[in-house]
Amino acid sequence: MTSTSSTTSSSRTGKGERGRRAHLSEVAREAADAARAAKIAALHEQIGEQVDALTADPQWRAMLDAAAKFHTYSLNNQLLIELQAARLGISPTRVAGFGTWRALGRSVVKGSTGLAVLAPCTYAPKDTRADTGTGQDTRQASPAATTATGTAAEPAGRDTERPAGGRVLRGFRIAHVFDISQTDGDPLPDVVPELLTGDAPAALWEALAAQVAAHGYTLAREACGQANGVTDPAARTVRVRPDVADAQAVKTLAHELAHIECGHTTEGYDYRGCRGEAEAEAESVAYIVTAWAGLDAGVYTVPYVAAWSAGDTDVVRAAAATVTAAARRILDHLDGAEGPENPSGDGETAPPAGPVTQAVGARVLATA
């Protein structure tokens, strides 16, 4: 990406700071580092305060109530949905059963083809034994996936046998769901990140791109599906969609670099299991980095972090150590500085130089 802004010797993303810091006394450097740390911490706290304000908005609560009606499908069902939707020429975004859409004030368009998913059938045993000894099985099967709202549920990674009083899996049945594009009716309440517009700070793209390359990743401006950016640890690639403004592109690049700096791409990190935490951390780092360079990304960051943290500011603040440390490392490189705590090339959170084998259950990191 080429910024339309001109680069000056005092640019935060240039090398002007390096010469000045080299002549600072040890005391002055420590004072500068303390001031930097305080500013980074203040920027992170600012995110928490803005998330607090957003989640107090009735519109946000209405959005959460609507979102709670949507089920999170297993990987197998996600693949089934994607394959069938592709045949129908649909890019699925929100899928739910007939009853759920009706509860949300929307109706499935007549003639729409449902997307088949596997819904478990379970029973509630009256006895912990499989049989009572009378020759008659007293356990009653029921399609547990069918709720009042019509959504299908499937246990993922849980034992099929449960303790007495619980439900036990007997088998699966076919259920059908529909994408929002196959429905009509009331618009869903939504609070979404706003794509940034305008130019990026001078030379910020180039400086962040250099850090991505230093971690052994190849950067490209390519389509990312429904995401704005994608980091693939196995392929060692970072992609940023090409059809957004410079400001959004550089913010997304900072987000993808943050995934690497926060350790989300290292072997063994359970990104799938910790996705909410990982996305909130990476976006918080991106906010700090872009704010440092003079770009306010709040209209994108605040709803994004609020969504991935479920509006829980304790989650945001609990990530402070990870977020501020990652932001500090990125900013040290942006300013051309080699602070005493983070000398150049320490590789503390960088993944191995060679190819990385993704952990089982891991996935490509995609930024919405």
| Overall number of strands | 10
Q: Biggest sheet, open or closed, and with what strands and sense? A: 4 strands, antiparallel
Radius of gyration in whole Å, from Cα?
A: 24 Å
How many separate domains? 2
Secondary structure tally, helices = 11
Strand order of the largest sheet: 1-5-3-4
Strand portion: 5-15%
Secondary-structure class:
alpha+beta
Termini, distance in Å?
20 Å
Helix coverage percent: 25-40%
Coarse morphology:
elongated
Mean pLDDT: 76
- Give the ordered list of helices and strands: HHHHEHEEEEEHEEEHHHHHE
Low-confidence stretches: 1-18, 128-165, 337-363
Question: Can I get a quick summary?
Answer:
The protein folds into 2 domains: 16-57 and 192-367, no CATH class; 75-185, no CATH class. It has 368 residues and is an alpha+beta fold. Helices cover 39% and strands 13% of the residues.
